[in-house]
């Protein structure tokens, strides 16, 4: 009895750790490609699999591979199945798990096609010795398929995936499916916002251009002092509107990077030196090691850093400090991107900080904590960082200041 209980406790611990690991890996992912890539990498590690892949059902009803780990990575951009075709299509159409229970017996399955064996296993088509696939399901609707292949134990191929593996993958598949669906809905919503913003920027820009033309005509006239003051106030408002329009355009415009390797300390130092700031605001910079470099589009990164500085400046009452720190990424941070060669850029301030419940919302478009804010600044920063295949998150404490952390691959991968 005690042995059985110990076994159940052990399996419960495995499941709990796996849920923690996959949740930690996917939380804060704002791009679908990024989410899927870290999913297959993390799952392969959790299940000790030689290969892992995610297929999603596109609008035309075809299952297409979106991410792969191990030899399945060779199929990305190539593999696709109709519903009911092969094992992958059968899992999706029949909404059920398929697992081989004996080593090498997957080829005995009546629906096994080996359609892409020549692509992913060009040198040894017998290398796939065990297989396991589960549907990705949201509210009784299948949105895709999650597959793992070749379970390894002590560096050698195991007989097959176990029943415990099946229970674990089913739990993780449900978590991943919900994350994928939420991100898809978020991306659709953001695309709609971008389209609306582009049209709004165009229409408002035209009207503001006309207003500034009328103001220039008035400035050439001899007007009473009271009217001149009013013209000046309207001019300030028109410039403010120009700033909002610029943010709308930046938000709605696709980000195209032109990356090159730069010394981060030198380039970010230039950004700080040229930042207009305000009286009482002190901006400090540190870099350890000083020689840290990365392959980035500095023009876009400069925009992102200025948005962060603006954000901090507006929330610091009176005198205050902003500290920019460039450093090597810590081990825990590396796990967020499943990459080792990362640089971290921190932006810390001594403002009021950000409440825990707002840490994700602040990156959403049009979410503003100030009545005069556009709610686009941090979303623009996030878009720039994600275009660099990096991430940004906030880890400060309320009443102790904000702490934004940017993680970017050094090589710009």
Keywords for this entry:
single chain, 413 residues, alpha+beta, Beta-Lactamase, Heat Shock Protein 90, 7-stranded antiparallel sheet, 5-stranded mixed sheet, elongated, disordered N terminus
Task: Characterize the structure shown.
With 413 residues, this protein is an alpha+beta fold. It has three domains: 2-187, GAF domain (Beta-Lactamase), CATH 3.30.450.40; 188-252; 260-409, Histidine kinase-like ATPase, C-terminal domain (Heat Shock Protein 90). It is 45% helix and 21% strand. It contains ten helices and 14 strands. The chain has helices spanning 2-26, 32-46, 86-94, 117-120, 163-219, 225-252, 264-274, 298-315, 331-337, 377-387; strands spanning 49-57, 63-69, 80-81, 98-99, 131-138, 141-153, 156-157, 260-263, 281-288, 293-296, 320-328, 342-349, 391-394, 403-409. Strands 1, 2, 3, 4, 5, 6 and 7 form a seven-stranded antiparallel β-sheet that branches. Strands 9-11-12-14-13 form a five-stranded mixed β-sheet, with helices on both faces. A two-stranded antiparallel sheet has the order 8-10. Strand 13 (391-394) and strand 14 form a beta hairpin. Helix 7 (264-274) crosses helix 8. The longest helix is centred in the middle third of the chain and has 57 residues, at 163-219. The chain is elongated, with a radius of gyration of 26 Å. The relative contact order is 0.09. The model is unreliable at 1-9 (pLDDT under 50).
